[in-house]
Design brief:
alpha+beta; GIY-YIG endonuclease; 3 strands
Amino acid sequence: MKFYYVYILRCSDNSLYTGITNDLERRVNEHNDGKLPDAYTFKRRPVVLEWYQDFTEPNQAIYFEKKLKKWSKAKKEALIKGDFDMIETLAECRNATHHKYKP
């Protein structure tokens, strides 16, 4: 069975990078080896694997990676820590027009 991995790397500047691969160890090594000079991680090496999830369906992995890329850094940090309550809190709408805030 083939696996696909969505992963989060912590870069040397403390930023987070989200990606997808079918070979996690190889891909992390490629980031650290600086294979692509135009890549986000190239000037932010070394990188450390902070979190990953495996998928058996590539479309599910692609969907989840796209979703994660839109998350705030705080929400990604909560995922890394496994703090699912915080993820839910950070996902709440804080808009003044939200039904929770209407009198």
